[in-house]
Amino acid sequence: MLTPLVMAPTSAAPAQTRSLGLMRGNKFALSMSLLGVTANSIVLTPYPAPVGTEVSLSVRLFNSERQAASKVKLEAFIGGDKLGETKIDVPVAKPVLAGGFKTWKATPGRHDVRVVVTWGDRSGSAQKPIEVGSKDAIARLGVASLIGRASFSLPRLVLTAADVRLNPPAPAAGQPVQLSVHAQNMGSADAKGVRVEIFADQVRIGEAGGDIVAGKDYVFTSFPGWTPAAGSHVLLCRATVSGQTVEATREITTALGVMLVKPFLQQPMLVANPELKSDPGVIATSEVRAGGLMMAKLDRPDLQILPSDITYAPAMPKPNDPLTITIVVRNIGTAAGSG
Q1: Under CATH, domain 158-257 is a member of which superfamily?
Q2: Per-residue pLDDT tens over the stretch 120-155
Q3: What InterPro entries does the record tag this protein with (predicted)?
Q4: What angle do CA 225, 230, 233 make, to 5 degrees?
């Protein structure tokens, strides 16, 4: 007779879990990463890396905060080995490429490259895999990377106060103003159907739309004209795409334009003594012969420049574009303006 054998359950080893950095909880962290550090911020050269090559590492940073980031600490690791650390300053709204780490000699297998960024009491990290080995392994990694990027990459818009542009740049009260907005997409995906709205003193002026390629910028135009009154004004720009919204405000002050007085039909006269007959600027009149006062005319230039006389080409320049400024000067006086 067979006796059934009962196996007593043994205590199971705790399950080993590992965050892939692509789970739902981390997806929010991607959009809120410190100084824009994500897996795509880690730059490996060469990538993919053949066995035995020296691989250099650098990190792309972008500061979308309202203040410059000083003494930002960056640490780089591959596997359990530390490649070094560096400190760098990251200005507002300007991309920075941080380097200075030791190179790593590629060995066969899969390796995880990790960077840790620390700014004051804030810290963040990102991780990127690298596969060193056969061409088939590299190809598999390439396909997986493409799938990951297609599934989890996001656009990220950046606006600053300087991106709200006016033409003319310093308008006078009552002068029509052309508005435009310069926006940057610092994300890893194209921003499709970006909607940009402009408000002046909480009153909506209008909107414009367009697409911004990943890593590029775009200038939105075709907003309705705006004519400011005298005083201080607050312009609010709001950009929306893929459920995210960014805003920037710009304060301007307009004053009454220079009041131009048309010249009199009769120019200002000089009163002179009729005895000063040797003055070349004196024109003799019948009053001189009568022994009375003599009136003389003084010819002189009278130059004027209106705010609208200052123009720019192009009207909405981009950074590093050559800019031509043209100023029209009018002489409404009675003498030529020389020198």
Answers
A1: Immunoglobulins (2.60.40.10)
A2: 888 888 888 888 875 555 455 454 444 444 445 688
A3: Ig-like_fold (IPR013783)
A4: 65
